[in-house]
Amino acid sequence: MPKKKKRKSNKKESNSSCNEKKSTENNKSFSSFSYAELVALSATLGYSIAQELDEDDLAIFLVFLELLVIEMQLIVTQRAIEKKTLISTDKEDEVEDIDLDDI
Known about the structure:
76% of the residues lie in helices and 0% in strands. The protein has three helices and no strands.
């Protein structure tokens, strides 16, 4: 009869949850990077990606990035329009709430 393996998942799970908490605390948002840091990051990524891809794959990847940027611009625009609509709707509600009998 084969021996049963002991399971050590509890320790691993607690370690992984601790690691996740640490990595979350260390994460920076893009808005917290300086201009120089963003330029260095983009240059480093661009150079690294260009070194790994041949000309055809690089051209396809650039088109993919363009599509990604367009979709993200669309989402940002939709959010701005929704926010603007909510603000204007709130202002209209404030105007409608005025009771003219009290004047």
